[in-house]
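Appendix B, example 12.
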Amino acid sequence: MSFQIVGTGRAHPALVLTNEMVSEIVDTTDEWITSRTGIKTRYVSTTETLLDLAVEASKKALASAGIESKDLDMIICSTIKGDYVTPSMACLIQRDIEAKCPSFDFNAACSGFVYGLDMADAYIRAGKAETILLVSAEAMTRHIDWTDRATCVLFGDGAGAVVLKKGDGLRSIKITAKGDDKLLVIGSVFSPSPFAKQPQIDPAFRMNGGEVFKFAVSSVIKDVKQVMKEAGVEAKDIAMMVPHQANLRVFQAARDKLGFTDEQIANGIDHYGNTSSASIPLLLDELMEQGRLVKGDLIVLTAFGGGLTTGACVIKL
């Protein structure tokens, strides 16, 4: 017995940053961005903290599930970096929603939501939890170089959350890692020390776009094929594949190889941009709210990101 998704929620900042607005900051155009990424707008934090977004998404997920925070056995939060190094985002979510359970953060970059599902599966199977709040919250616009037109156009901010209860929704899941700090990296900023002799690290997001694209496409195809085989399902059985929203061209390159139609590929990158690990739960909640996904549907989730990490799973809603 694993888990069932019983509630979803999402939150994003108020500011909608259009491609035209980005073109006033760097040398780019709406046509250039749209044709290469599929992105038209993204949400960017101004006065909102990442905790604000995470708490809002969490409260919506709890309301959707019809449970109270006191019923939670655990809070798991996927984030590249919260508002603080410590305390963790999950601990502050716990405080603000008035929960009483163990809470912790982890970082698996853009694959974080699928990694979090794998962790939740392990805790529930071990009998250590029956009701878990999984939150993915990211403020990617804090980590980009706004003078680099190749990367600053890609990202947005947001948070998504799901409530997981003991059940039989998870049909198969896979996570992978391959250590690499060359293809995709975000550096850290440290307080100065009179003893530090380490080389300075660039704190901004940097990426070898061409190599990351090849890694993304090959990983999606390989991972999705494996989890579908393990679940005993075919493309025709899947209501929708919800991929990490990184680049429209990744979906298009993988679609035919996997046997999916355009209608089966969930796409929210046009209005969210790349929100790292938050992208899948953000879009999942939107699809549930719109009625495009309903209870009983079979879905495939797939993600890839820094680390390098990947993950995929098949879930019955």
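The two ends are 15 Å apart (CA to CA). The chain has a mean pLDDT of 95.
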